[in-house]
Amino acid sequence: MQLTTRTMPQKKRIALVAHDPCKPDLLNWAIDNQTALEGHTIYATGTTGNLLLAHTRLPVLALMSGSIGGDQQLGYLIASGQIDVLVFFWDPLSAVPHHSDVKALMRLATAWNIPIASNACSANFLIHSSLFEQTFDITVPDGDAFLSSRVSHVTQNGVHTQHLL
Ligand SMILES: O=C(CO)COP(=O)(O)O
């Protein structure tokens, strides 16, 4: 796949998400790191975001609840270069009915090469990294080149475009 570069801004757009058993951990982590988080823009899935609004001073942009679209809203924001960091405390010990959405969110965060933290320890390493407060270039898929190459590949491999008209 062809790649291009995206520059992460100094002021990061951070997505915070937690499954229900992990919400206390995420809330405690956000409270402990409120000062570090304050200079950045915080997005969250609905329940996580409203808990953060109630228990911290952070001006969180709360999306829909994760299981009814919030995970996918975050996936869209990641794929369109509008999220720089994903902090997702997912529960390794229980299944959720919206597993496919969780998987899609993790897949897009990986595909679009953004840093992901899945627990308090990795989140601490991430936000206390010297890279966190800088602008930073990341390699990302070149969406336009990817689309053009697919269109020409499919056309060359037997799609008779006149049948599509
Ligand atoms: O379900 C979630 C992540 O998969 C999180 O959603 P809520 O923050 O609405 O609980």
Automatic annotation (TrEMBL):
Q: Which UniProt keywords apply?
A: Lyase
Q: Which CDD domains match?
A: MGS
Q: Where are the active-site residues found?
A: D71 (proton donor/acceptor)
* Residues annotated to bind substrate: H19, K23, T45, G46, T47, T48, S65, G66, H98
Known role: Catalyzes the formation of methylglyoxal from dihydroxyacetone phosphate.
Family, as annotated: Belongs to the methylglyoxal synthase family.
Protein's name according to its UniProt entry: Methylglyoxal synthase
Where does this protein come from, organism-wise? Lelliottia aquatilis
